[in-house]
Amino acid sequence: MAYQQVAVPARSTTPGVLIGVAGLTVLVLAVRVTGAGEAPAVEIFALIATSIIVEALPFVLLGSLVSALIEVYVPERALDRIAGFPLSVQIPGAALGGLAFPVCECGSVPVARRLIARGVHPSAAVAFMLAAPIVNPVVLLSTWIAYRGFGIGPQMVGGRALLGLVVAVAAGWALGADRATIVLKRAPSDEHAGGSRGGGFVAHLSSEFAYMAKFVVIGAALAAALQTIVPQNIIAGLASNTVIASLALMALAFVLSLCSEADAFVAISFTQFSPAAQLAFLVSGPVLDTKLGFLYGASFGVRFVPRLIMVVVPIVLAGALWFEVLIT
Amino acid sequence: MRLDGRIAVRFVLLLAWASFLAWLWFSGEMVRYLGPRTYWVIPFGALTLGGAALAHLPWLRGGPSEPVRRSDLVSGLIVVAPLLLVLAVPQPDLGSLAASRKASFGGGGGPALIVPGAGHDGEVAFIDLSYANESEEYALKAGVVEDEIVHLTGFVSEVSPDRVRLTRFYVSCCAADAVPYSADILLSPRMGGYSQDQWLRVRGRIAKDDDGRYVVEPTMIEPVAGPRDPYL
Fold first, then answer.
1. Whether ipTM exceeds 0.90
2. Which domain, by its residues, includes B129?
3. Which of A64, A139, A192, A206 to mutate to test the interface with B (most CBs of B within 10 A)?
4. C-alpha to C-alpha distance for A233 and B18, rounded to whole angstroms
């Protein structure tokens, strides 16, 4: 049985939008004429926000493509068969399924949305969504490449994969168990165009993409604003204690909103921080960051993000401490 | 048969972003936004977004369709807003302000310190000088020794009476993950007049300052235009 969706109400179009377009055009011209765009803070904001979006949008499209394929071409009985397995099999199975889905976090959210909408248990879909950006082969390979020069490549890859799977399974179990936590919001135009399968596929692809893309844009803008305003070196003094250092790097990961396929190359630059704190950065970043906060909220409702934080932070912290004990 | 407004809005969104990515691809401007590891995203994105836009064409003129709703248009405006930002700020750079904001966690050492293994045969570079100030072992492996000749090109991120800090960002994935690497260039009394964000080409030799940190004593400093690829 399909998961209940809550429609986002839509309003009719008005000339106000045209006024908005005209206003934005005037704003662009004003910025160019006055030279306000040459202010360093504006340049940093523009560059960081645009770069995050440029990098994320193709993956949002890829995720929307898979989502549309699931919606239109995967038969009901195939998903019913998956839903028939006990949860104790579904959840770890879905998390391990992330090994075969080489996209970053922006792509896994629309897929999870569609799986839930088609009747897959939310616990399994959330486990897949959180695991895929951490344990997919591209991410693990990039982690190994980044850390091999430090002589701890295998340890970091193993630690990241294992802790990522634990976080995904635990969060799937905890969040999916309470159906009130996940209120699946529906894109305003989840419809079949033209009545044909091809038309339905295109309609789902584009509505999913448009719905997700706007939250990527908003999240990227917030991440860029934070990076422009907040000096990151303020956390450099927190490196000596593993607990505080791990929490500090998790907070930094939230602000930076990096792609999981390259975040290891950033983590290695935190040379004052222990490998355990860096592991916390690598596991928490792909499941909790600024742009994801908007995507999760738009997809699963406002309760989802705080509850996810309550599950992820303690597990990652405990995992980082264990990792420190194991590699020293 | 009439134009399906909602499909048309999404077609325009996809086409606009595909066109922007294609422009980044063919103009070479992608080096401003992404790092070498993710350059492939630009052609991949241009082709997939363009393909997705073209896939909408058969359904642009459909059967009976719903009118475009305000929510669709507002969403569309949000998605194209970054493109308007690019028009307003066409050639943004990470400069000295970004260097002061971005994480540069080297320099303090401490019990947790780890630095990468070195041992390359190339010329000593910004990254080597930064890590060398954290680990003598690294300095030896990277060939960071006093009197070694170095060539550096970067922008001025800090200016003081006796030195300038020359910086260049390393971008792994995109500009959001840029990490600044710096080298201090000592100035003799007849040198000076450099300003923040000015690009300089420096030739000099490695020395140690009074604090025992590796610095560069220049034999030549030349103002230059910012390079096409501003990152390491």
1. no
2. 96-223
3. A206
4. 36
